[in-house]
């Protein structure tokens, strides 16, 4: 990665980052229609670049097997979480990615502490895990609808007035712990306007093939718009940290939101800068011995090492030029 490209990406996402310690008021501080002066046509090209960059870095992340990445996606209904995941991860190896969607918690999940179900879906080293909704639901939907809290069967001392501050603190510490142990936490909030949500809901009703995506519950949640904006603002203010900052991604234009998400993930991976492991001097010597054996097995008329012949510069590390084809007879 050239420093220039890395810097461009860093500059691009800078306005989206929530400064740790700042007091956010969503509607005042972030515009869902912001698009950094880009046109959709340039955007498609940019997304393509971002996606191929992600593919390259994911391969290195997996090979190095030291760091993992957790990407948390939060948003209101129809903001585009699913589409973002589909596009941003379109170029990467499915073996290195694990997507988890979090719904209303099950009885088994409610029988544990509130972070339990998220812990079980964390990435392994070398992996990118995506949370489609995340542990932040515990300070969002649970806060807007306190009846969810009753179902969590908390003891008296864990459900007092300072509950939300305590949860913010616990979440921050948990993410700090993960970061210190090699797991980068990246958090994206897709910021949709009320009017754009109305339009998308209508589209889901108007198009029969979209009907399945719509539920009456979605409109009920929409009625609580202001409560959600407040809960999001509080969450962003309290849990954007140096080690795991929030990014508020404008979501009214789907194409722009996707570019931002790709850029944020790319930035995280560039920051980790995973390297292919070097097997070491000794192992390398053994490899060269094996290489000679394999070369001697070349059938008559075949090149000793067809790969090295076709890619002389890539195979230069073997320390010796490939040998010419064996003569027949
Ligand atoms: P969807 O993502 O549209 O399939 O909807 C999942 C639903 O699960 C949303 O309405 C969320 O608010 C709800 N949900 C997710 N996590 C929790 C939670 N921890 N407590 C209560 N409801 C939740
Ligand atoms: Mg839904």
Describe this structure in words.
This protein is α/β, with parallel strands linked by helices and 329 residues long. The chain has 2 domains: 3-272, Rossmann fold (3-Layer(aba) Sandwich), CATH 3.40.50; 281-317, no CATH class. It is 48% helix and 10% strand. It is built from 15 helices and 5 strands. The mean pLDDT is 94. Residues 77, 102-105, 133, 137-138, 141-142, 148 line the site of adenosine monophosphate.
Q: What is the strand and helix layout of this fold?
A:
Blueprint: H1 3-13, H2 26-29, H3 40-64, E1 68-75, H4 81-88, E2 97-101, H5 107-110, H6 116-119, E3 128-132, H7 141-144, H8 147-151, H9 163-180, E4 183-191, H10 194-206, H11 216-222, H12 225-239, E5 246-250, H13 254-272, H14 281-296, H15 306-310
Parallel strand pairs: 1-3, 1-4, 2-3, 4-5
The protein binds adenosine monophosphate and magnesium ion.
Keyphrases for this structure?
329 residues; alpha/beta; 5 strands; binds magnesium ion
Q: Which sequence of strands runs across the widest sheet?
A: 2-3-1-4-5
N- to C-terminal distance:
49 Å
- Judged by helices, strands and strand pairing, the structural class is alpha/beta
How many domains make up the 3D coordinates? 2
Question: CATH-wise, what's the superfamily of the largest domain?
Answer: P-loop containing nucleotide triphosphate hydrolases
Number of helices: 15
What is the string of helix and strand elements?
A: HHHEHEHHEHHHEHHHEHHH
Overall mean confidence score, pLDDT: 94
Largest sheet: 5 strands, parallel
**Strand composition percent:** 5-15%
Question: Bound small molecules, which ones?
Answer: adenosine monophosphate, magnesium ion
CATH architecture tag of the largest domain: 3-Layer(aba) Sandwich
Task: Please give the CATH class of the largest domain.
Answer: Alpha Beta
Q: How many DSSP-defined strands?
A: 5
The dominant shape is: globular
The radius of gyration is 25 Å
Which bin fits the share of residues in helices?
40-55%
Q: In the CATH scheme, what's the topology name of the largest domain?
A: Rossmann fold
């Amino acid at each position: 990665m050239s420093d220039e490209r890395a810097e461009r990406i860093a500059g691009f996402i800078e306005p989206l980052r929530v400064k740790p310690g700042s007091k956010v008021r969503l509607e005042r501080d972030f515009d869902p229609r912001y698009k950094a002066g880009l046109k959709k046509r340039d955007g498609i090209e940019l997304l393509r670049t971002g996606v191929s960059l992600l593919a390259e870095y994911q391969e290195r992340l997996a090979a190095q097997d030291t760091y993992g990445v957790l990407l948390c996606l939060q948003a209101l209904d129809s903001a585009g979480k699913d589409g973002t995941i589909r596009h941003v991860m379109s170029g990467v190896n499915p073996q290195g990615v694990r997507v988890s969607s979090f719904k209303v918690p099950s009885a088994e999940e409610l029988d544990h502490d509130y972070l339990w179900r998220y812990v079980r879906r964390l990435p392994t080293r070398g992996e990118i895990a995506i949370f489609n909704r995340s542990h932040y639901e515990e300070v969002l939907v649970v806060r807007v609808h306190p009846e969810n809290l009753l179902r969590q069967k908390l003891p008296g001392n864990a459900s007092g007035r300072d509950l939300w501050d305590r949860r913010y603190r616990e979440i921050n510490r948990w993410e700090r712990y993960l970061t210190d142990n090699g797991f980068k936490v990246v958090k994206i909030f897709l910021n949709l306007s009320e009017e754009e949500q109305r339009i998308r809901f209508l589209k889901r009703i108007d198009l029969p093939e979209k009907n399945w995506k719509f539920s009456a519950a979605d409109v009920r949640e929409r009625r609580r718009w202001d409560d959600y904006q407040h809960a999001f603002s509080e969450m962003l203010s309290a849990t954007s940290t140096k080690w795991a900052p929030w990014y508020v991604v404008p979501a009214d234009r789907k194409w722009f939101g996707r570019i931002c998400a790709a850029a944020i993930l790319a930035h995280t991976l560039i920051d980790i800068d995973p390297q292919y492991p070097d097997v070491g001097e000794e192992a390398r010597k053994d490899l060269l011995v094996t290489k000679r054996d394999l070369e001697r097995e070349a059938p008559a008329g075949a090149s000793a090492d067809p790969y090295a012949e076709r890619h002389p510069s890539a195979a230069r590390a073997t320390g010796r030029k490939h040998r010419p084809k064996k003569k027949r007879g």
